Amino acid sequence: MRFRKKLFFEIAYLLWMGLLPFISSLALGYLAVSNPSFFLNLSLSQQVLFWISTVFVMGLALCPTTFLALFVGYIWGFQGIWPLIVAYSFASILGFGMAKLWKGHAMIRWIKRTKKGAQFLSNVQAQSFSWVFLARLSPIFPFAITNAMMSFLGVSFLDFCLAGMIGMLPRTALAVWTGTQAKSWEYLLHHPESFSWQDGASLVLLVLSGLGMYFLARRQVKA
Question: pTM here?
Fold first, then answer.
């Protein structure tokens, strides 16, 4: 029973990391569209406070990172990408550290209950840099869930930081650019004629990350 209880809370933690951001993004989106001048007129100290707060907003899964990148592009354009990258990196560390407190022992035990699960775990740990890079590259892997899962699976902190930084650059730049154009997937669904290279690039990132993970999973890890 104790194992099942721990597994339940660990799964609930991952669900919270995945669902809560979509709720909070509605409020931020409303503020951005209804009153963009509020953010444009922030003083230097207020801007510093804003970017510090984004570390906790992303690290605690209060808002999707892709949505925040869209927001930054919509408000500040590419001028906001560098502080966003810095905040993104610290948020990654925060999320990774929080997951360490949960340890994820029950989930690891659950994964290891089968031979394939144990092999997958060994694969991820042995090729942690590549797995983190591909997870960050993919547009469909939520930022906070990736932080938690990579921590639970025991990837090295250095690989997590370096690969995460490199992998998130294309999708972050793409999201910021999309924000500058005031476009979104919802807009695309209602206006398919507006399909542009940004939208195609998202699909390319998804395919590349998916293929990469497929080949990584099939690779035999040497003992």
Answer: 0.70
